[in-house]
Amino acid sequence: MRIEESEGVSASRNHLVFAYYVTGHGFGHATRVVEVVRNLILAGHDVHVVTGAPDFVFTSEIQSPRLFIRKVLLDCGAVQADALTVDRLASLEKYSETAVKPRDSILATETQWLHSIKADLVVSDVVPVACRAAADAGIRSVCVTNFSWDFIYAEYVMAAGYHHRSIVWQIAEDYSHCEFLIRLPGYCPMPAFRDVIDVPLVVRRLHKSRQEVRKELGISDDVKLVILNFGGQPAGWKLKEEYLPSGWLCLVCGASDSQELPPNFIKLAKDAYTPDLIAASDCMLGKIGYGTCSEALAYKLPFVFVRRDYFNEEPFLRNMLEFYQSGVEMIRRDLLTGHWKPYLERAVSLKPCYEGGINGGEVAAHILQETAIGKAYASDKLSGARRLRDAIVLGYQLQRVAGRDISIPDWYANAENELSKSTGSPVVHTNVGGQQTCARSEDFEILHGDLQGLSDTTSFLKSLDELDAVYDSKNNTEKRQMREHKAAAGLFNWEEDIFVARAPGRLDVMGGIADYSGSLVLQMPIREACHVAVQRNHPGKHRLWKHAEARQNAKGQGPTPVLQIVSYGSELSNRGPTFDMDLSDFMDGENPMSYEKARKYFAQDPSQKWAAYVAGSILVLMTELGVRFEDSISMLVSSAVPEGKGVSSSASVEVASMSAVAAAHGLNISPRDMALLCQKVENHIVGAPCGVMDQMTSVCGEANKLLAMVCQPAEVIGLVEIPSHIRFWGIDSGIRHSVGGADYGSVRIGAFMGREMIKSTASAILSRSLPSINGSIPDELEDYGAELLKCESSLDYLCNLSPHRYEALYAKMLPESILGEAFLAKYADHNDPVTVIDQKHTYGVRAAAKHPIYENFRVKAFKALLSSATSDDQLTALGELLYQCHYSYSACGLGSDGTDRLVRLVQEKQHSKSSKSEDGTLYGAKITGGGSGGTVCVIGRNCLRSSQQILEIQQKYKDATGYLPFIFEGSSPGAVKFGYLKIRRRISLRLD
Q1: What positions carry a catalytic annotation?
Q2: Residue 115: is it exposed, middle or buried by C-beta count within 10 angstroms (0-12/13-18/19+)?
Q3: Where is the Galactokinase N-terminal domain (predicted)?
Q4: Using one digit for the tens of pLDDT, what is the confidence trace for 322-372?
């Protein structure tokens, strides 16, 4: 029904005209539109579909003269750089070309067309400009969707730069003209729509039964069948027979005509009706989208999915799949290399349990019909301007991390709170109206320990206090939205003690990858930290999750100790939020399982591999200290240390986990041993070949001091005061760093190879130059130094070789690189217990060996300079050492475009005329930790101008790359200095 009735046009229940706009973002939108359109046409109405999708998507299901297809594309969706990666900048630029620049022409054309067909209602899935065109034409509009483009693009704007910000504002403004939203399950936050009607899944109906489809395909019912529903397959990807388990067959959707398939793969026609084929299969393999998820749930089909980068709708759909026990995440590498078997076999063991409605198309069509004849679903309590004010503009949901809240407008946070759409870790706002406030900790009695004025610990206790309310919630929608918190609420017995530990990440000021070669390192604990809460309970009193309880009942052994873990922030890192196991699974007969078996155990399910960092602490305590755990253990992990930025997020989790477990079980572990035990978790159970400086800093660090440690293997030599005139910052490059990555491991292997070659050379010189019969020492041996050669022939740490000895004897004999096979043939082994040489890989040796030898010298010089007289020369020398370290990383192959750019920006500031006239502010920068991305450490004068320059670098980096860097500043105490909290809920004080 029109808002303003036009002459000669009337609407009746018997015959209405709908204009249905479909986004250009893939087939999933078109397939769900089909079902709504089909029901509208069955009711006797005309539907004009405006789409860029092929006609067969609609005509294969609807053969009716009431269906009109108009081939027009009014938005572009998300542009993909490849089959699994969204190109954020290209998406914004394409939208600008498609919908922004021709906007006036689009609105004029669409307004005229809507009048020409005498439309009674405009429906959008989920084309923004359609809502504005409807308003211009005086026609009501309704959106039907599970996400909105302002939400999707807002995160892209955060990454791409402010010059695209107007796009998101324009989209939000367009949506504000929509009367209300018909919201589909698996939805994202959409505050632009203030009136919402939830409907069941919109799913295409089945034409044939499972038996009919299999009979037509000639596949018996006992054959396992997987459907590969993977649009836009990676270029050059060739499917191989061995990808499938023995006896399995695979139906391939979207294969090109020229693509050759193995005999156990079956090519489907391009217009094949996939719902029938999905229902006839045993599981599905593909990318997450609304269409695949809804049909997998509707037909109770396990779905093995591969995550797409920057596909912001995905976490919410994945939540829905996992909630109904229908999803298994496959890592990209395993998809492309054909390691499918464990995922497929796990998938068919699932028991999907979705029992909700699947008639969303019928329900939505009824609502649209009622709206078109005049029924008012909107509340009228909120104006379009108010709806716009509450729209998502900055992609807050996906960007909520410490340090970025400053760029989030207050009105958005308010809108988010109204709609209860919080994701990730609970965040407590501590600054309201300019007044500093603290979350209450009075609901817990602190039996041991001290908050030490740490606001993040206060916030963590507040989040614990709020779990009771989550657990008591009876609202099913709220349960789905707060899945992590719901699981956490079931962890603890509030009448028993809970132990809380805290461990910070670290900023690698100097030392970096030289730690595994025995260097002196200087590390600063950062402000961001991980909190872990642990409670132990008698197995008979432990509150179990339903599936864990069912597992125990199936064994028929009665209550046995169980480990249950909840980790906040799963939405931000695409992993499962919970993990549980019987603690007896850690035993192999009478002894704890081997670390190798444990690594394989945690790698079974990629979405839960993260649990190795937490649960691995328990196995290490069992193996190394002989601890036996007779009680069940509940653990809640909440980390504010960003992942993949080179600031030791993994070490903070390991240290906080082991510290909390030790506190709960009365284990007295020395700080040094704690760090070494946590390193074993990462080296042997996670499988990452890191040194020990990360764990040692997280354990032993103190706020605003540098931990000085000689890594042979872990000797803390003291804490170095940071002079008051010096300040350190970390700037994140946005390029993900991984200590488990190939580059870091290869450089480490190259360094150990270099050590073996140096030892061999020293031995050879000694053997050629043995003393003569009369006992005299040859001149050659005197020149080289007999005692030094003996030490070098048994060199335990590469950093024990001085730079001048390296240059005098060994620099020229080390090869630039060597093939793994050639090295093993000559030297047998590189004697590194945590890495394995790949015989077919070529390793850089000279640069990898030279770096730690010179880095050890640089760190010693840096430490000495910190205590020298305050001067501009002091700061210049400190900065120069950082620069030298950075370029040495690059020589090893551990640099990156992003970190190089940040270092250049620091250099530009340092050498600018303004800095020289003001005695300088920034003096040096270097890549940190494992390199190949991650964070850059910057040194500067501790003054306001330096902070301003850091912010200017942040903005320049964003202008150049589209990524707004995270800035690390500030420090906090390590795990030992914090100790632990022993808390108990004050039950009597809770009146609700």
Answers
A1: 694
A2: middle
A3: 495-536
A4: 888 899 888 776 788 788 998 899 899 999 999 999 999 999 999 999 999
